[in-house]
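pinned: reference chain
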Amino acid sequence: MSEFRGSGYLISVNERTRSKAAGIVSDEEDKEKSARELFEWVRDNYCWDMRSIESSEALLGRENSKAMSFSKSNLLISLLRSLDIPARIFLINCRMENKIKGETESSIHGPVQIKVDGEWIVADPTYGPHTTDYHDKSEFGEETWEELQSSELKHDLDRSFVWGYNYILQYVHPDVRSIRKQLRSVQNI
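pinned: its structure tokens
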């Protein structure tokens, strides 16, 4: 798997993403600093919400809005790859904190792995300053989950996964309304 491979189904590397990434980072030569700055920009500019998975292109056109965790990861990977920083989706089944309920819940999640100085670092841009009453703010290099149950590394999410996930989210998932209601009560936007 090439960590530099450009566009996929949801992850686009093009002039638009290159231009945006270059405008966010302060020093393109310092890959770790650039990765951290891009991570913080995506984390802080998009409020996590239970929505359909979107492409990086769709999300880039809507700054300061709401986005699903997978969509935020897609955008972060696009921005990183546009600066030749290797990145990939780390598709996981895990248990995650829900501060409102005071318990952990099973979840399918898609944080990012970024290769810096030969090491893969986890970067989960999901939880920003808008949802700290629901889940602690994500920090660069730190896991956001309590217990990892299974994992798979991906260059990009495939169409069947996205279709299935979006379908379940919209029509089947029993807790979506409850989670959306909880999020509305804590989102600081």
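why pinned: The chain is about 35% helix and 25% strand. Residues 31-45 form the longest helix (15 residues).
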